[in-house]
Write a structure and sequence with these properties.
Blueprint (H helix, E strand, L loop, with lengths): L8 H11 L13 H20 L7 H24 L4 H29 L3 H13 L2 H7 L14
Helix pairs in contact: 1-3, 1-5, 2-3, 3-4, 4-5, 4-6
């Protein structure tokens, strides 16, 4: 369980876990909606598990490593999702979700740097920005239910 500290660790963790989202790879052709959802949700579950397997941070130093590892998982996820060939009817929703992942990944990099430098106020501010990214809403809109679920509840 993560302790809620002055750095807003709990809000950072919840947002990061929601970012965990989904991914997968496609064959050479355009996927059907069902194939897209199935592959993406399977990869979401794997990414969520990868993040959940990490020890939760209880200090800024630990948060720096946690944010970096989480970012590595979600960057890999973003690349996997980008490789999926969504049907044209699904591509706009998927693109919006990918944009949210990209925004979240950029914030995770900044959180890792700020935490590593011991900048608690910056971590808190960045965590609030991260929490505002509507990744769960965008995942649900794309039909990617596993992408909208956090793998761990921090509190």
């Amino acid at each position: 369980m993560i302790r809620r500290g002055r750095w807003g660790l709990a809000s950072v963790l919840i947002a990061a876990l929601v970012l965990a989202g989904c991914g997968g790879s496609s064959s050479s052709g355009t996927l059907s909606r069902a194939q897209l959802v199935s592959r993406a949700n399977a990869a979401c579950s794997a990414t969520n598990a990868r993040i959940a397997d990490q020890a939760g941070p209880s200090s800024l130093k630990q948060l720096a490593g946690y944010a970096s590892s989480t970012r590595a998982a979600t960057v890999q996820l973003q690349h996997s999702l980008s490789a999926l060939k969504a049907p044209s009817s699904e591509s706009a929703a998927l693109d919006r979700y990918l944009a949210a992942l990209e925004q979240g990944n950029a914030l995770l990099a900044r959180i890792s740097s700020a935490a590593g430098a011991g900048e608690g106020a910056a971590v808190s501010s960045l965590g609030k920005e991260l929490a505002k990214i509507p990744t769960a809403t965008l995942a649900n809109a794309a039909g990617l239910s596993a992408c909208a679920k956090a793998s761990t509840v921090a509190g």
